[in-house]
Amino acid sequence: MRTLCLSARDPETAARAAALLRAGELVGIPTETVYGLGADGLNEAAVARIFEAKGRPQDNPLILHIAGPEQLDGLCHDIPQAAWDLAERFWPGPLTMVLPCRDCVPRRTTAGLDTVAVRCPRTAVTREIIRLAGTPVAAPSANLSGKPSTTTARHVLHDLDGYIAAVVDDGPCAVGVESTIVDLSQGAPRLLRPGGISPEQLRAVLGSLTVDQAVTAPIAPGAVVRAPGMKYRHYAPQGQVLIVDGPRERAAAYIRRRFAPGDAVLCYEEELPLYAGCRPTAYGREDDPETLARGLFAALRDLDRADVKTIFARCPPAVGVGCAVRNRLAKAAGFHVISEAEL
Ligand code: TXA
Ligand code: MG
């Protein structure tokens, strides 16, 4: 199959992408978080092709993308007021809500769960595609399973060229890490995955929020997890990632002492001069954590290609969007962190 690359600026793109989705094809769609691998979320056969193209485990459910909150009622039942409050405050935007699902949603989409994850993305062309397709669009991140998520159309083609009908190119993603996932299906709201909306922003609307332990610690083999995707080794470049915390100069001294040929350093722009000779890659600015979120996956992809052994990574504190950056890096690192006390 030849994969078409459609520009989001072309006025015919939304209709072409929508027609492909209606025909059961796979289309790479831009969102403000990461690129998605879209299919008609109510078409079992189309959804099955997502799992095939990505090499995704069958027990990992998909997020349904909708054009607006008015579509929520048709897909979910027993929607609590908190969900409407969150939708009003954060949609369209990088927030996914898990809610009890109606029978119209195929079991393939939900991987057999009685809940479904729903999100309304901010990217205008994608909401237009969903509206024209006339169906919610199931879309995991558009990467091969286990690889870092994709934040440009070029990344999508790198992983999936020839396996999908088209990709819609809307430039680099504005947020760069995946959406925040909140489970509202079982009483007290629970954070399953930090993302573009911070826990602080959620608490301002919800009052309280429980953070699932899968966010901050490795999952024991065989444990039951609320977000099935959390148990897989995600965002993993081929090299071993090691997070080094602590003040700039002391962390740099530690890393320079241990650096061996074949290793690399993932750091802040402000730190580049400290790592001359240590193959440094900057993924954003320490004084502007949103740039770190935007640059993280592209940097991990670059390091993946370079066949690196150990990646020493500098990582922001788990505050604001830093919470998502830290979660992704910690998972890539298998939660290996050198703390300030160990420097
Ligand atoms: O920003 C995003 O959310 C991107 C863009 C494309 O929208 N999508 C995304 O999808 O990150 P994916 O499939 O890579 O991650 C979805 C996560 C997985 O960890 C999955 O297990 C979890 O959402 N999930 C999906 N449905 C769920 C459900 N009913 N209950 C709990 N977790 C669910
Ligand atoms: Mg993913």
Short description:
This protein is α/β, with parallel strands linked by helices.
How would you portray this structure in words?
With 343 residues, this protein is α/β, with parallel strands linked by helices. The protein has helices at 13-22, 44-54, 72-75, 81-90, 107-110, 124-133, 153-160, 199-206, 248-258, 289-305, 322-332, and strands spanning 4-7, 27-29, 36-40, 63-65, 95-100, 115-119, 137-138, 166-169, 180-183, 190-193, 210-211, 240-244, 264-267, 280-282, 310-313, 337-338. The protein has an eleven-stranded mixed beta sheet with strand order 1-8-2-3-7-4-6-5-9-10-11, with helices on both faces. A five-stranded parallel beta sheet has the order 14-13-15-12-16, with helices on both faces. Strand 9 (180-183) and strand 10 form a beta hairpin. The mean pLDDT is 94. The chain binds threonylcarbamoyladenylate (TXA) and magnesium ion (MG). Threonylcarbamoyladenylate binds next to strand 5 and strand 6.
